[in-house]
Amino acid sequence: DAGVIQSPRHEVTEMGQEVTLRCKPISGHDYLFWYRQTMMRGLELLIYFNNNVPIDDSGMPEDRFSAKMPNASFSTLKIQPSEPRDSAVYFCASSFLRRSRAGELFFGEGSRLTVL
Amino acid sequence: GIQVEQSPPDLILQEGANSTLRCNFSDSVNNLQWFHQNPWGQLINLFYIPSGTKQNGRLSATTVATERYSLLYISSSQTTDSGVYFCAVSDRGSTLGRLYFGRGTQLTVWP
User: Does B101 contact chain A (CB < 8 Å)?
Assistant: First the structure.
């Protein structure tokens, strides 16, 4: 089975530009998560969805960040306008609820964003 | 949210050595996972282990939920074991699936 697929793998952009990161979760998974990883803050949860509905976006740093999940197989994380401090690796992850292994998380390969 | 502390923060080993990584957490958990982030940045599941003991090849893990800690054992380490090992937990009060990560243990294995 295909894992979580993210694109682009690398993005270099200039401050002020719009950035869109994409994610395709594992088929059949009903939870989708966006994480950000930096040296200073480690891995931090930005937002997660259950059955395409945003459940908790308290980790989204500010209004410049938005995330959508229009269907079960696709999600986007958008930053507009981007700033240098947004430079990080953004991970998408998915999981599904089942009685014996609730919440086991599988990560994509990440999107490395550099904002100049 | 729940606090997750990992130790040691850094570990340097000679190939063939054994090691133990520790994860302490501040509250009862309903989910605990160990991940390996390889030098290319990929986060790979090692174990889903909210309680008990599991083994997978040279790696094994034990979680003692009542005492709020988990241990990851690496035996006969190899250079490919290098990377960062993360422990992540979900507490009983939070929605299933939301994980809190420790800061990781950076493991370097020399040939």
Answer: yes
